[in-house]
Design goal:
Elements: H1 12-23, E1 32-35, H2 42-49, E2 53-58, H3 63-75, E3 83-85, H4 93-96, E4 103-107, H5 116-129, E5 134-140, H6 149-154, E6 157-161, H7 172-175, E7 185-192
Parallel strand pairs: 1-2, 1-4, 2-3, 4-5
Antiparallel strand pairs: 5-7, 6-7
Organism: Sclerurus mexicanus
GO molecular function, one term: methyltransferase activity
GO biological process, one term: methylation
C-alpha cells in the first residue's frame, strides 16, 4: 500500500469513475455533485471542470485526505470548491446541513467490508433527502465473498450494473494498475428502490 491513508493515491477505480463523468460531461453543467471518500478527488475535479457544482468530502478523521482534496482543487484552478469532513455512518452537522445533490460520486469506497454498511447508511440518508439523486460508484473486486446485495435490500436501495465497455473504460490504460494483485473494476449506479419493492 503506497500510504497508510488510502485516499492519498489515485486508485484505478477513480480513473474509471472519472471516465464515466467525462463521458456524461454534457449533462453536468449546473448539476449538484457530492464526492464521498474523495481522497485525491479525481472524479469530483473532472465534474467541476465540466461545470458541475461540486462539493468534495472525506472522513473528518483523515485530515491529510481532506488536505489532499484541497490541494487537488488548487492544482486544477478550482479554489472555490468546498471540502467537507463527512465520516461514513455518522450523522454530523455537516451532513445534516448539506445542500441538495443530484449525483453522489464514490470511487473504491467499498474496499473494506467493515465499512460497507456505514457507506450505504450515508448514501441512504442522502438519497432520502434527494430522492431523484443517484450514487455513481466504482469498486475493485477484491473477494468473491464480499457483497453489498443484502445491505442494499436492508436499506431499500437498488443498483444497476454499468459495463465498462459502455463508456470506454475497459481499456488497459484506464482500468489497470501497476500495483500487484487483481484489478478487476466494476461500476454501478445506486438509487432508492421504489416502494413497490423494485
Amino acid at each position: 500500500v503506497p500510504d497508510s491513508q488510502y485516499g492519498l493515491y489515485a486508485w484505478p477505480c477513480a480513473v474509471v469513475l472519472a471516465q464515466y463523468v467525462w463521458v456524461h460531461r454534457r449533462s453536468l453543467p449546473g448539476r449538484r455533485v457530492l464526492e464521498i471518500g474523495a481522497g485525491v478527488s479525481l472524479p469530483g475535479v473532472v465534474a467541476a471542470r465540466c461545470g458541475a457544482q461540486v462539493t468534495l468530502s472525506d472522513s473528518e478523521e483523515l485530515p491529510r485526505c481532506l488536505q489532499s482534496c484541497r490541494r487537488s482543487c488548487l492544482l486544477n484552478r478550482l479554489p472555490h470548491v468546498p471540502v467537507l469532513g463527512l465520516t461514513w455512518g455518522r450523522v454530523s452537522p455537516e451532513l445534516l446541513s448539506l445542500a441538495p445533490v443530484d449525483i453522489i460520486l464514490g470511487s473504491d469506497v467499498f474496499f473494506d467490508p467493515k465499512d460497507f454498511e456505514d457507506v450505504l447508511t450515508t448514501i441512504y440518508f442522502l438519497l432520502e433527502k434527494n430522492p431523484h439523486a443517484q450514487f455513481w460508484t466504482t469498486y475493485q473486486v477484491r473477494s468473491a465473498d464480499w457483497s453489498i446485495e443484502a445491505l442494499l435490500c436492508k436499506w431499500n436501495l437498488k443498483n444497476t450494473h454499468v459495463p465498462l465497455h459502455s463508456f470506454g473504460a475497459d481499456k488497459e490504460h484506464l482500468a489497470s494498475s501497476s500495483l500487484p494483485g487483481r484489478h478487476t473494476i466494476e461500476m454501478m449506479i445506486i438509487s432508492l428502490a421504489q416502494s413497490d419493492g423494485t
